[in-house]
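Input sequence (349 aa), recorded before submission:
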Amino acid sequence: MKTVARFVLALMLAIVGVYSLGAQTRALVTGIGIFACPQGISIFVTEDRLDLPAPQVDWATTNISPNIGARARLVGVLPDPNVPGGRARQFIYWDEVSLPAGAQGQVIARGQQNESYATFTVAGACPPLGSVRGVAFEDLNRNGARDANEPTITTASWKLTAGGDWYVCGTAGDDATFGPTVKPGTYTMIPVAQPGWRATTPPRVAVVKQLGFAALGNDIGFTRDPSSPGDRCGFGAPAVTPAPIGLPTPAMPDVATTWQALRATGLVFCTVSAPRLPAEVVECSGVVYARFHGTSRWYRHEYSDAELAAWAARIRASGAREVWAYFNNDHQGSAWRNAQGFRQLLTAP
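Predicted structure, token format:
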């Protein structure tokens, strides 16, 4: 059955929306580092300003057919220790994508003052996942830091989260250490006290720069308190942030039942394309309702022809009879162009 496509283009004309169409100041890009392997590509971009938006980074292969490329997704930011005075930041980008070993390519990082280029060759194999590592210790003086005379403890738990609904919990090993494995991204390590203990260290932000990278020094401290009932793993999540690319989202209970209930009552689920959200289409009651905000940066990403074609294929495969697609990536007029192209893809014979 031919899909009937209805489009409503959401052009944001409020003050914030109009401002986003104007020129944005970016910093001077001073360096690019790249690691590419068959499972994905990590890009580190150093710039000289602490108060400006991240550089725009694009990558593409150059010696295979067809070539592969995308706008890189920002997953973390940290100070660059190689710059005197710390007057620079290093932006961490990670794209999980299938790359053939030996393929060559180029990265372009665009700042306000310049464009920087770097080349890469895809390695033959990927290292293991990255990790967030630390030690659990008894904080004898309750200062929230591990001092030389403070012993390690094995009666300790931890919670690692990327914000929102994604998190994982665990306990320290027999040697009081821990190191959950994760993909590149920004995480928060939270101490979780067991009964009879209270946490003394605040949540710590850890950035995993690439596959195989270990974010060290995420120690968690506790002090004895017989009256403490302990903490639950579900407590203390930080403010909602996008989930890291490629990491599993915890299974929600009765998801199938939820879709069934929506369809039975004629309600429609909102499919969202946005940074670090899964590219999944949910059809309910014969309708797909989708909002496109941009995959690399909210409202500031222009979908490529390949990205739009992939979304059109998912919608066709869903069997939907009707499509409502909103493009909210209004920066520099991308929404209008993407909406026109998407309509042509869905209405083509």
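Checked by second reader. The first helix runs from residue 15 to 20.
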